[in-house]
Every structure is written in structure tokens, then in C-alpha cells.
From TrEMBL:
UniProt superkingdom: Bacteria
Keyword Nuclease: no
Source organism of the structure: Geotalea daltonii (strain DSM 22248 / JCM 15807 / FRC-32)
Keywords annotated in UniProt: Heme, Iron, Metal-binding
Gene that encodes it: cbcR
Keyword Zinc: no
Gene3D superfamilies in alphabetical order: Cytochrome c-like domain (1.10.760.10)
Annotated signal peptide: none
InterPro entries linked to this entry: Cyt_c-like_dom, Cyt_c-like_dom_sf, Multihaem_cyt_sf
Any GO molecular function: metal ion binding
Protein name (Swiss-Prot/TrEMBL): Menaquinol oxidoreductase complex Cbc6, cytochrome c subunit, putative, 4 heme-binding sites
Amino acid sequence: MLLFPAMVSAGRKSACLTCHPSHHTGRGSCTGCHRGNDRSERKNIAHHGLIGGRYAHFTIPGSKVVEEGKKLIGAGGCRRCHTTGDRGNRLAADLDKLFPGASPEDVFKAIKNPVLYMPDFHFVDTEIVSLVNAIASGARQETDRQREIVQVVHFIDDGLARENSFVRLCGSCHKLLSHRYGGLGSGHMGPSLSGLFSEFYPATFAGKTRWREDNLKRWLKNPRKVRPNALMPPVAVTAAELEQLTDAMVVPYQEKNSR
Ligand code: HEC
Ligand code: HEC
Ligand code: HEC
Ligand code: HEC
């Protein structure tokens, strides 16, 4: 029987409205912002894959929550390891590609309980919610650029990595996520040096100068000459060791990123 075909036509009323009032009207459908299934009046089906209210702010242009998250991305230096909003290094996951594969809760947890080579920023929950919204907003605005296929290889445990002079000379105090050798070092007394030579590494050296081989050399010779309060002791490195450890700091796609 052909009963009420209009019920399933484009003009059909969203089943979300059985239980919820309408809001943000004129900005699209409920599922456009929250996903879920608006053909079912059963909550567990309707809510399948739902984006909750706190993670939906990225859908609102000019959202304060997104702005807050973007500030934290800048302050945290996330881009020295990740790409987000089409900018940043690719030493770790491209955050523009997380959605829709991951749920906002997964992303929240990844920031709250970071893996070994991701720093623990000790963010409070509201800050993490802002970050998740900012990441989602960055992914949304991303143009369909040609994406290179990047192999993110971490935790390689071969001789090359173990014998790298970074591990021997720096690894007791620092960690380094390297493109070539994976994660190197295990110390946490000094900061993670991932992406050190890239524009996305937070500027700390003598003001705003970017880290390069020459000022790194000066720093290693005597950190106190560069920063009077430095805690790092001088580290003697041979030219060959320096070459090997700066080689581990090479960041792929640097040319593209520093345009
Ligand atoms: C059968 C009733 C029912 C239907 C149908 C329903 N919801 Fe809900 N929804 C609820 C109830 C009850 C809550 C309160 C929290 C809970 O119990 O999950 C809720 C909570 C929510 C929340 C807040 C969750 C959060 O964590 O912020 C959102 C967003 C939401 N619903 C969106 C939708 C959308 C979009 C649809 C349609 C695709 C929909 N709901 C369909 C009953 C329903
Ligand atoms: C343009 C995007 C957008 C659309 C369209 C939209 N929402 Fe939301 N929704 C949000 C945002 C953002 C929030 C977080 C609170 C706020 O800003 O309103 C939210 C929050 C919610 C909440 C949680 C409210 C609370 O007090 O915790 C529910 C429930 C909800 N939306 C249901 C719906 C339903 C049902 C529809 C369709 C009628 C809908 N939304 C359409 C963006 C949207
Ligand atoms: C020193 C490098 C580094 C920095 C800085 C860093 N991360 Fe990560 N992050 C990682 C690594 C390593 C992983 C594990 C996944 C991988 O290998 O890409 C990861 C994983 C993640 C994931 C989960 C990705 C997934 O595939 O599920 C999210 C989300 C994330 N980071 C967000 C952030 C945010 C937000 C910041 C800034 C506040 C940040 N990260 C800063 C290294 C870093
Ligand atoms: C005994 C521990 C220790 C060793 C070994 C060590 N560092 Fe450090 N390093 C630190 C500490 C602590 C800091 C934090 C800044 C300070 O000194 O107050 C630091 C800071 C740095 C900085 C500045 C980072 C910034 O954001 O300002 C660089 C670059 C650096 N170390 C490179 C190296 C390299 C390369 C090696 C190996 C050749 C190395 N360090 C070995 C403890 C160490």
C-alpha cells in the first residue's frame, strides 16, 4: 500500500523533535550539526554516533569555544608534531584527518591521557573540550589539498635508533619524536625537542630566534651563556655526533610548511 509517501519525503519532520525542542533554527538540520539518525524515535538509534552539545560548538561560526581551543593549540605548540587547520608538522597524526573516524570522546581521551611521545599538558576538562572543538573546526575548514601519504613510524626499536647520539647524549633528559627513527630518548627533565628546527616549535631561544644548528651548538657548549638560569649542563658533542643528532631532528615537508 502507498500510505502517506509525504512522511518520508524531504519535507518530513525530524524525529529528533519528538523529544527535543528546535534550536539554532535556520542553521541547518539537527543531524547536520549533531549527526545521529533523525528517522528514528528510539533514543538509542537516534543518538547513534551523536555529537553532544559540548562538542558541537565548532559548527557555529565565530564560536568562543573554538577561539579558546585555537589559543591553546598555539600555546601548547601542538603544530610542532601535528598538522591541524592545514598547518603544522607531520611527526605525529594529522589531526585534520581524525574526524569522522574518531568520536569527540576518543579525541578528548587522547589529549587527557597522552601516549609516551605526546607531552602531558595537564589541561582541565573544559580546555580539552575547547581543543576538540578547535581540531574539528580546523578539519572542517581544510581545503581538499593534495595529501601526501605519510608513514608515521614511531617506536622503531632497531639498532639505528638506539645508537643515535641523541639517545646517548640527550635521551636521559629529553624525548624526540623523529621522522626517521621514531621516538628517541626517555627523559622528562628537559622539554620534548620534537620539531625543534621547525617554525612551529615554541620560540624560547634568546627571545624569538628559531632554533638552528648554529645556536644549538652554542647552547650545548654552555647553556648558561645563553640563559643565565639554565638547568641544562654543557654537553660535549663531536661534529659527527652533532650531525647525527640534528639529522634525527629533520622534519619532513618543512619547505611546504614554511611558505
Ligand atoms: C526518544 C527521545 C529522543 C530522541 C528521538 C532524540 N533524543 Fe536526544 N536526548 C534525549 C534525552 C532523554 C537526552 C538527555 C541525555 C540522555 O539521556 O542521553 C538527550 C540528549 C541529547 C543531546 C545532548 C547530549 C550531550 O551529551 O550533550 C543532544 C545533542 C541530542 N540529544 C541530540 C539529538 C538529536 C540530534 C536527535 C535526532 C537525531 C535526538 N537527540 C533524538 C532524548 C531523545
Ligand atoms: C548549527 C548547529 C546546530 C544545529 C543545527 C542544532 N544544534 Fe543542537 N547544539 C549545537 C550547539 C553548538 C550546542 C551546544 C550549546 C549551544 O550552543 O546551544 C547544542 C546543544 C544541543 C543540545 C544540548 C542542550 C543542553 O542544554 O545541553 C541538544 C539536546 C541539542 N543541541 C539538540 C538539537 C536538536 C534536536 C536539533 C535539531 C532541531 C539541533 N540540536 C540542531 C549546535 C546545533
Ligand atoms: C612532542 C610531540 C607532540 C606534541 C607537541 C603534541 N602531540 Fe599529540 N600526539 C603525539 C603523538 C606521538 C601521538 C600518538 C599518535 C601518533 O603517533 O601520531 C599524539 C596523539 C594525539 C592525538 C590522538 C591522535 C589519534 O590518532 O588518535 C590527539 C587528538 C593529539 N595528539 C592532540 C594534541 C594536541 C591538541 C596537542 C597540543 C596541545 C598535541 N597533541 C601536542 C605527539 C605530540
Ligand atoms: C642532564 C639533563 C640534560 C641533558 C643530558 C641534555 N639536556 Fe637539554 N635541557 C635540559 C633541561 C633541564 C632543559 C630545560 C631548560 C633549562 O636548562 O633550564 C634543557 C633544554 C634544552 C634545549 C632548549 C629547549 C627550549 O625549548 O628552550 C635544547 C635545544 C636542548 N636542551 C638540547 C639538548 C641536546 C641536543 C642534548 C644532547 C646533546 C641535551 N639537550 C642534553 C636537560 C638536559
